[in-house]
Amino acid sequence: MPPPIRRGLSPLRLVLAVGYLSLCAATYWIFQSHAARLSNVPPIEAHRARIPLEAHIMSKCPDAKDCLDDLVLPAMQKAQDKVNFTLSFIGTPTENDDGVACKHGPEECLGNIIELCAQKLYPDPKTYLGFAMCLTRDYEHIPQRGLIEDCALEHAIDFRSLNDCATRNDGADGMSMLRGSVQRTAEVRATHTHTPEDETLIYSTSPSIRPSVRPSVRLPAAN
User: Is the pTM of this model over 0.85?
Assistant: First the structure.
């Protein structure tokens, strides 16, 4: 019987095998390096700062409804992923008691505080703006408990948390929020002196939304 043929690696086969393994290793290294660089690249949206957009209103003012319905809501529907929306309020800080005087009385101040609490507890504009618009549709009854509860239920807001926010420290925390909000409105007016003090405001720092302050509807003279 003839001896079995023993097949060994020829020099050519050895060179080809080493070359193939080297090519695989180089391809893997290049792929891993590229993937690592891509993983460190932040999302494109991270480089695009959202445009500040503010609405300055009074909760018991009939024109607040027009402002939210006709200006804010259409803007948010088209650009909610491009703006940082804030709801602020119009009033006058008082000097003697660190409080706020509201044009439509103490009930309006409380309505403002409730809407600020909603904004604080539920920072998604779709929630707190929807809640504010729900209240504004029936602004004559702000801040009646039934209206607040109904709108809170409609927009999945916890009424107890809302009430706790508005009444914490005997109402001092809520009043502090309102005071800060009306002071912000005063700062905006100070840079736009042509805007009357009894108008609702739409404000943005973006050059594409100039003029920065746009009155929605002129308010009637105070009684």
Answer: no
